[in-house]
Design brief:
about 475 residues; alpha+beta; Ribosomal Protein S5, domain 2; seven-stranded mixed sheet; four-stranded antiparallel sheet; 13 strands; about 45% helix; about 20% strand; binds 2-acetamido-2-deoxy-1-O-phosphono-alpha-D-galactopyranose
Length: about 475
């Protein structure tokens, strides 16, 4: 990663101007609680010590010009306006636009005119693996949002930004939840963060002494953009539909109205998790759920079902999977994973690393069996990790590839990393994905096997007048 003085020098070279702010935004690794944030259920991630770094300067007018130290990410330039039109689906610039648009919307809601915001120049650098389930996309959204605030000299609360930016990221077309932005903005160094949603609440959770969290990158890429976003969106759409069917059936049976129920967590205001599971067991299994019977169960026409639940932001319809909607496994995962997060917090608060490790393993099995988001490479990785000494190992993030996180006794950590290097990269990857093996060698194993302590949330610092290389103390841009 480029040092901060070099990044500042590079900014001057590329833009011929002095930078005013340094923005640092970490990635996150989710320890447990996968694919349930959009169900409103709690999650337990920690911020990583890998991050995006950006230096920026305000520029006159409304142009936003962004350049990346990695040339693969072509320069992007666009105009800040009330409605910023997106680039083509899949363009990295959409994450930048999502962050800027998020602040424009926030400003308008606060009664500020978008004219009060300003364009900016930004140079980005990162040592955070991309498309690997470590939240590089949300880190980019947060970076561009903080740049927009900094250029305008505005300040915002971390919590309100986390809420705002999780909605803002849907600009790129994914129906994700709020875990990433909350973890990135609200984490405290040295601990994990339990995050509850609607309303957003956080609890600092201690991590066991004498253990390392080792993140290993399978090299199978897990992008959420383009075609892969259909796979991701289908998971959140099926969960949402399943909840609506449960709500409707309950109302029909009892005659009671369940108000404001949109997500699994909302049902828990009326029913316990095991009551929801029992009810779901009586409704979903043994039937193929297609548009016709799903629409009928909800009292909708198929056209209404399409419009209300199956239309993505770009207007495309989510296809119905060949086997029909898989409501029952989604419900089983969401309910059990939510309970595992609660049990994990209890285990960690009482220093029971073994119990937490078991819950990590159970979470992995649930992600694989109920959500279908594992793949042969991830299965190989967790199996190797457990036999190399991890007391818990699971895929982390959106899945379909990306990374695993393993809980490893510190005394075994060095040996664990050597075994993973040889057994996964040099043997498995080389024989099963030779092209990825070459890429792994070029990337360097130190960027693929990452031991990370829990890091702190994003920071914005002003750079001393004249662009002195030493950042001045944190400003109040983030409160
Ligand atoms: P990653 O791992 O960054 O692709 C995505 C979602 C999260 C969460 C996880 C799965 C976004 C921005 N991120 O994260 O909200 O649903 O998948 O637990 O949509």
């Amino acid at each position: 990663m480029t040092s901060i003085p070099d990044l500042i020098a590079e900014f001057r070279r590329r833009f011929q101007m002095e930078p005013s702010h340094l923005i640092r935004v970490p990635g996150r690794v989710n320890l447990i609680g996968e694919h349930i944030d959009y169900n409103g259920l709690p999650v337990l991630p920690m911020a990583m010590e890998r991050e995006i770094r950006a230096v920026i300067a305000r520029r006159p007018g409304a142009e936003v010009a962004v350049t990346n130290t990695v040339r693969r990410f072509a320069d992007r330039q666009f105009t800040l306006s009330r409605r910023i039109p997106p680039y083509q689906t899949g363009d990295w610039g959409n994450y930048l636009k999502a962050g800027v648009q998020g602040i424009v919307d926030w400003a308008v809601e606060k009664g500020l005119e978008p004219d009060g915001l300003s364009g900016f120049s930004m140079l980005i650098d990162s040592d955070l693996p991309m498309a690997a389930g470590l939240s590089s996309s949300s880190a980019l959204v947060v970076t561009s949002a903080l740049a927009t605030l900094s250029a305008a000299g505005l300040s915002a609360g971390r919590r309100e930004l986390a809420d705002r930016l999780s909605v803002a990221e849907t600009y790129v077309g994914t129906l994700g939840g709020g875990m990433d932005h909350a973890s990135i903005l609200l984490s405290e160094a040295g601990a994990a963060l339990k995050i509850d949603f609607f309303p957003l609440r956080t609890t600092v959770v201690p991590l066991p002494a004498g253990f390392d969290f080792v993140v290993t990158n399978s090299m199978i890429t897990a992008p959420k953009t383009a075609a892969a976003r259909i796979g991701f969106n289908r998971l959140s759409m099926e969960s949402r539909l399943a909840v609506m069917v449960l709500k409707k059936k309950y109302e029909e049976r009892t005659g009671a109205a369940l108000d404001n129920v949109k997500r699994m967590a909302d049902l828990y205001r009326y029913l316990s998790p095991s009551e929801v599971l029992d009810m779901a067991a009586g409704i979903f299994p043994g039937k193929v759920w297609v548009k016709e019977n799903t629409a009928a169960a909800l009292g909708l026409s198929e056209a209404e079902l399409d419009r209300l639940y199956l239309t993505m932001r770009d207007g495309c319809l989510l296809p119905v999977p060949e086997a029909g909607f898989l409501f029952w496994p989604k419900v089983q995962h969401a309910i059990s994973e939510g309970e595992r997060v609660k049990d994990s917090v209890t285990a960690l608060q009482s220093g029971n690393a073994e119990a937490f490790g078991r819950l990590m393993n159970e979470s992995h099995a649930s992600c694989r069996d109920y959500l279908g988001i594992s793949c042969p490479a991830l299965e190989k990785m967790v199996t190797l990790a457990r036999s190399a000494g991890a007391i818990g190992s699971r895929l982390t993030g959106a899945g379909f590839g990306g990374c695993c996180v393993s809980l490893v006794p510190s005394a075994l950590s060095g040996r664990f990393q050597e075994i993973m290097a040889v057994e996964y990269y040099d043997k498995y990857l080389k024989s099963h994905h030779p092209e990825l093996y070459e890429e792994a060698r070029a990337t360097g194993y130190q960027n693929l096997i990452i031991v990370t302590a829990p890091g702190h949330g994003a920071t914005v610092r002003t750079l001393a007048a004249g662009g002195a290389a030493t950042p001045a103390p944190a400003t109040a841009i983030l409160q």
